[in-house]
Amino acid sequence: MRELFESTIERLLSDIATPEYVRAAEQNVWPADLWRALEENGITLAGAPEEVGGSEASWADLFVIVRAAGQHAAPVPLVEMLLGNWLLEQCGIGSRSGILTVATDSTLTCSAGALSGELRYVPWGRNAELVVTVVTSDEGYDVVLLEPAAAERIVEGVNVAGEPRDILHFSAALPLASVPLPAGLSPSVLLAGGAMLRSAQIAGALTAIMTLTSAYAGERKQFGRPISAFQAIQQQLAVLAEQTAAANIAAEAAFAQSDTALATFSIAAAKVSTSDAASQATSIGHSVHGAIGFTREYSLHLLTRRLWAWRSEFGSSTYWSKLLGEAVCNAGAEGFWPLITQSHNEQLPISE
Amino acid sequence: MSISQFKYSIIPEEAEALRREVRAFLAEALKGYPAVKRAYSWMGFDAQFSRLLGSRGWLGMALPKQYGGGEASPFARYVIIEELLAAGAPVSAHWIADRQSAPLILRFGTEAQREKYLPPICRGESYFCIGMSEPNSGSDLASITSNAQKTEAGWLLNGQKVWTTNAQHSHYMIALVRTGDKEESGRHGGMSQFIIDLSLPGVTIRPIADLSGNEHFNEVFLDNVQLDNDALIGAEGNGWGQVTAELAFERSGPERFLSSIALIHTAIAAIGKQPDALQARDIGRITARLVTLRNMSLAVTQQLSEGQNPAWAASCVKDLGNVFEQDLPEILQLLVEDQPQVGGGSDHAQVLAYLTQMAPSFSLRGGTREILRGIIARGLGLR
Q: What does the pLDDT read at residue B248?
């Protein structure tokens, strides 16, 4: 299934999500034909059950979709939809079609079944037909499914890459569905899931930067030869390759280990490793490209600007490393190495 | 070469099952073993301990049973060696023999050479060192001038090796020397490998003190050393190719990122269960880097177990790993207010003093940072 997903999404995004297309989407144009193509090929519902048209793919298989979305800077809430539907399945509401996103930054409160407050920094909040979030309830936490159309007001914003990140104000809005958060799921489940998604998108974008930068270094001539012939450039590209490899395997590990429950220890390690790799890789990518890479016209920034956004979203490297560090110190010196060798089974206590 | 070589790989269950056993063994065998000695990592020498590992079947694990090995998978060996390294066990005596001399002899040796050298390696009784660098040949290894001339009785060896780790404790050195004319045989031709019995007349070994005063490496003088015909390992003139194959073993293991793990242990102990925000962040980031490096290393092990040559991926792990193990003293000296101390002081102070001084060597031994990055760049098609 993984191979099929990989070839399908690779083909769709290569054909449709060209640099020109991504640039246009950054000007607040909803990429309707890309979304339709993803829907028609079953990508938006890849993780959903077969009876609603999905493929019931595990996170291990969905990894290649999320990574490809990052590699091509796909200007749609595809990965958010995969996560939102996963949570809707986990809590029994069930997957939805359409355009669905998630929200983690919330001041929503529930009163007599109606929701008031704000959802902030919602990916494609203005375009989404549905939004999934977790709210505090009298008994604990509820997973709720809301329509952005029910918002009293939408304040549009964008991240550094021009991707919509909107504020939705609700005033006594009635959710389409609301169920208690299942036991075993953290109220921060969307934060952890989002961190996992961003780690794979970062890995994808790094892979694209690696390809773009190597190719450029081979073509650009100075002093009578390609700049890739210079050791100073080779050494930088070697580090870029190492960071790209590290990011890819860190992200893949997090997805592969999240089959039964989100592997939060590995997700934290992945978000830290990929976010830190993003900082190094953007620097090298721009350094090797020189001034052309700093222009609007050249496509490097479609990747680097996303990395500058994604490394901070769903918890920065510092956010996740502090959680890891607290867990490690709590395990003590004797517990450190066993924690590393068992990291695929470890859960982190996450509280917002 | 591409980053797709780094496939997420997990340790198979039968290999993972060894972990409990080796951990229990180490808890007993290393009871009361001081932190600063654990920090020696794979530079800690203890022949008795090596023989103990041999008797457990944990040396030459991947070798065929007929030579004393266990025919175990690369993952089984990986579990054993990462546990030894994490515990700071004194593994230096057998380390090079187990890691690269034995695989080299198995691959390129004659039947007689295998039968002679491999069983004592598996028993932890026979120790090897590597003769590559020379006074004027470091990163430019192909410029070596030590040479062996064919004689009626065998070979006559002359020259000098340097930075030879453990030569003073080893029984044999596997050396790369010139056996053909450089002008005639090309830059990488005309070189051969020999197994040199270090007790032979004409071999002089002088330890070189490192900046901390420790004596790990040596200079080895070879003056008219008379070698038998069977000292040649592999084919005459094929030395460069053999060394390149050997480097895949030399560079692929977890010892390339675990050298400073003793300092993580003492730092966590010094910090305690309630880290402040800075300590939590930095310990967490170190943890993330280690988890990721280990996943990369397991991907390399997967390549080994599939019979592929992981030289390119191994270079990535070694370089990234060396940066990590060199960063640790730098990061951790800022997290705990406990100054490095050579004599006396806390465990953390002593381990910090030792590893701060050792760290520069991590990106020199086994190939410098610049050489590794050059190999990575070549794999990317850049040169």
A: 82
Mean pLDDT of chain A: 96
CATH number at residue B56: 1.10.540.10
How close does chain B come to A223, measured CA to CA in Å? 16
Pinpoint the alpha helices (H) of chain B: 13-16, 18-29, 35-38, 47-56, 74-87, 92-96, 102-108, 111-122, 182-185, 239-251, 261-271, 277-305, 311-332, 347-362, 369-379
Within this chain, do residues B192 and B271 fall inside the same structural domain, yes or no? Answer: no
Region A282-291 average pLDDT: 98
Residues B149 and B156: their CA atoms lie apart, in Å, by: 5
The CA–CA distances, whole Å, from B198 to A222, B1, B111, B120, B245 equal 52, 39, 22, 16, 24
Question: Can you name the CATH fold of A98-182?
Answer: Butyryl-CoA Dehydrogenase, subunit A; domain 2 (2.40.110)
Three-state DSSP class for B13? helix
Domain of residue B323, CATH code: 1.20.140.10
Residues 6+ apart with CB under 8 A from A54: A42, A45, A46, A47, A48, A85, A95
More confident residue, B180 or B146: B146
> What separation, in Å, do the N-terminal and C-terminal C-alpha atoms of chain B show?
13
CA-nearest of B174, B164, B267, B290 to B227 is B174
Residue A163 sits at the chain B interface (C-beta within 8 Å): no
pLDDT tens-digit series, residues A150-177: 999 999 999 999 999 999 999 999 999 9
Q: Which of chain B's residues have a Cβ under 8 Å away from the Cβ of A318?
A: 281
Give yes or no: residues B190 and B277 share one domain: no
pLDDT of residue B182 exceeding 80: no
Band of residue B3 on the pLDDT scale cut at 50, 70, 90: confident
Contact B19 A341 (CB under 8 A): yes
Domain limits of chain A? Answer: 1-76, 98-182, 189-345
Q: How far is B20 from chain A (nearest CA, A)?
A: 10
Domain enclosing residue B295, as ranges: 252-379
Please, which residues 33-92 of chain A have a Cβ atom closer than 8 Å to chain B? Answer: none
Counted across chains A and B, CB pairs separated by less than 8 A come out at: 169
For B261, nearest residue in chain A (alpha carbons): A337
Question: A185-223, pLDDT tens digit by residue?
Answer: 999 999 999 999 999 999 999 999 999 999 999 999 999
Nearest to B292 among A249, A320, A336 (CB): A249
Over residues A55-69, the mean pLDDT reads 97
The total number of structural domains in chain B stands at 3
Kindly report the nearest CA distance between residue A16 and chain B, in angstroms. Answer: 24
Among residues of chain B, what percentage have pLDDT more than 70?
Answer: 100
Does one domain contain both B118 and B134?
no
Contact B8 A244 (CB under 8 A): no
Percent of chain A at pLDDT > 90 equals 94
Residue A351 scores a pLDDT above 80: no
Say yes or no: domain A189-345 is CATH 1.20.140.10: yes
> Do B292 and A269 lie within an 8 Å CB cutoff?
yes
Q: Which residues of B touch A344 (CB under 8 A)?
A: 10
Of B100, B126, B152, the one marking the end of a domain is B126
Contact list in B for residue A241 (CB cut-off 8 A) is 3, 316, 376, 380
Residue A325 Cα to chain centre, angstroms = 23
> Are B182 and B301 members of one domain?
no
Any domain includes B16:
yes
